Amino acid sequence: MHRRHFYIAMALAAVLLSCATIPTGFERPVSQALTDTDNTALGQNVSAQKAAHPGQSGFHLLSNGLDAFVARAVLAHGAERSLDVQYYLYHDDLVGHLFTDLLIKAADRGVRVRLLVDDMDLAGRDMGAAALDRHPNIEVRIFNPFSREAGRTSQFVTRMGSVTRRMHNKSFTADNQITILGGRNIGNEYFDADPDLSFADLDVMCIGPVAQEVSSVFDRYWNSELAYPVSVLYKGEPLSDESANELRRELAQFVAQQESSNYIQALKNSTLANDLRKKQLPMNWGEGRIVFDQPEKVLHDFEETQFHLSPMLKPYWEGIQKELVIFSPYFVPGKEGTAFLTGLARRGVRVKILTNSLASNDVGLVHSGYQKYRKDLLRGGVELYELNKTLTREERKEKKGHGGSSKASLHAKSFVFDRKQVFIGSLNLDPRSVLQNTEIGVVLTVPAIAEKMAEGFDENINKGAFRLELKKDENGVEQLLWHGYENGQPTVFTHEPHTGFWRRFGIGFMSIWPIESQL
């Protein structure tokens, strides 16, 4: 670049940066989780079970999308004191509207609602968030906000390393008694049940000490300097009570029209809903530990790992003796991760990994980072599987604006250690999750759940995924093969299944870019 052009570009960037300001000098009232909730209905519902398992926590897996919605809805209906809600994405769609309605109705009963949402999904939606915040029992905060005085696209350049690091956490806690953690954001694609997809997504409902741990983590984020009250970000016309109430009436009318939807019917009639109401939900009990990134992680260099979740998980990785099962939608192990996984395999540990295929992955850039490590993993004895599911170009385009997620893609994030312990949470095994974003999850030491998940992997993997093989031809040249089923018949592919030449070419081209830390 000519020096004159360079200076012009730098000056333009400086102007853009100067415009990308965020509010300062405002009050951020500190609040904490409500702890005197044992006498609530939810507290009394779980008191006998907790008394029978002192010091332990109870867990119930939510692998079905409708059940995952029902669980949140029943807890919102039953809450009496508080709802603490933290999500990365919160879509403006059917599930988003139903979920908002749940929060409003709880607040109308006097429940204190604290809603903390990352700003990635909220472009142009400040007025709705501000209207919700006007409810006397609801407070809305936005994490690591973009400036409202400059375009978001320019800020990805001028605030690189700031707005590119996001709060990926997902938690929902009712009355400090019951919490739900896992991979689901709030949006249609995260709660649709797909009977042909065994590994779509996964949450876990928890009671006992881990619920209080999640509340403590929520408080860290809620009171963080990165959590901005929506009232200080909103730049539109001042909202009156009348205009806010009108938005609420429109929402109530919309929800009333959804009486026949699968979600409302499941809330009325599903086995899970009835079990929860009758206090008969089966729980598996054991030790639980919440692992989490501190909110300050996004303010510090990658090397400052005292703010990271990774050291909390390290003992579990290092303790593996026989088997490791990984579910990770976005899987970019890097050189260090590849060496660790192949090292496990060399000492006799069976390592099995399920991730998205190129056909099921709507974030091609991530796939370009992952594909560089496939051959090394296979050479090292790792068993590698890719989801046998196809996204059309239209589906990829539709979902791209929602953070790269689709019901046709694997979205569960879970690791099974030696069929004894399980991690369930928001963490993908890629540099973005490990180094840049913040995450949360729970490690539960419940062999019954660990065994069930490992067995489920073995039973479903050949039907639902391609098994990758690295094979040498007669000339000693290595070739990747994908073993799967098409129309019930075993099939072998010699290139990325169900993809066209130009998509494969584009992904291969992207793989040479030095951007792995951003994946």
Describe what this molecule looks like in 3D.
By secondary structure, the protein is an alpha+beta fold. It has two domains: 32-277, Endonuclease Chain A (Endonuclease, Chain A); 293-518, Endonuclease Chain A (Endonuclease, Chain A, 2-Layer Sandwich), CATH 3.30.870.10. Helix content is 39%, strand content 20%. It has 20 helices and 18 strands. The protein has an 18-stranded mixed beta sheet, sandwiched between helices. It starts with a helix and ends in a 9-residue tail after the last helix.
Q: Which CATH-level-2 architecture of the largest domain?
A: 2-Layer Sandwich
Please state the structural category: alpha+beta
CATH class of the largest domain: Alpha Beta
Which percent band covers the strand fraction? 15-25%
The biggest beta sheet is recorded as:
18 strands, mixed
How large, in whole angstroms, is the Cα Rg? 23 Å
Number of helices: 20
Write the CATH fold name of the largest domain: Endonuclease, Chain A
- The 3D shape can be described as globular
How many distinct beta strands? 18
User: Ranges with pLDDT <50 over ≥5 residues?
Assistant: 1-18, 193-199, 398-407
**First-to-last CA distance:** 28 Å
Tell me the count of domains.
2
